[in-house]
Amino acid sequence: MKRCCVSSDQRLPLDAPPPSGGLTYVAKLRLAMLFAGSTEGAHRACVLLGVSATCRTMGISFEQYLAWAFERLGTHRERFGLPVSELTPAAFKLTLGG
Q1: Where are the alpha helices (DSSP H) in the chain?
Q2: pTM higher than 0.70, yes or no?
Q3: Among residues 5, 44, 51, 79, which is most buried (max CB within 10 A)?
């Protein structure tokens, strides 16, 4: 039987440092996707993860992008006259002057 010893040295961290590159986020998300409910639900979650990663890479707020896209995609699509290709994160960044 292996025994464990608790140190009284307060300079030692209580837990391991988080892995670099956001791997903790991805691991938690993968666990959550196991319970997506169906194959279609998992597909939708993966699409949103991809859009989120694209926004993060481009330096765009994911929430602001979604609000912008949903406003144009939903009931106002005819009013804005935009094809779906004009609703990408890159198009959003161009409308912001980036």
Answers
A1: 23-33, 39-58, 62-73, 77-80, 89-95
A2: no
A3: 51
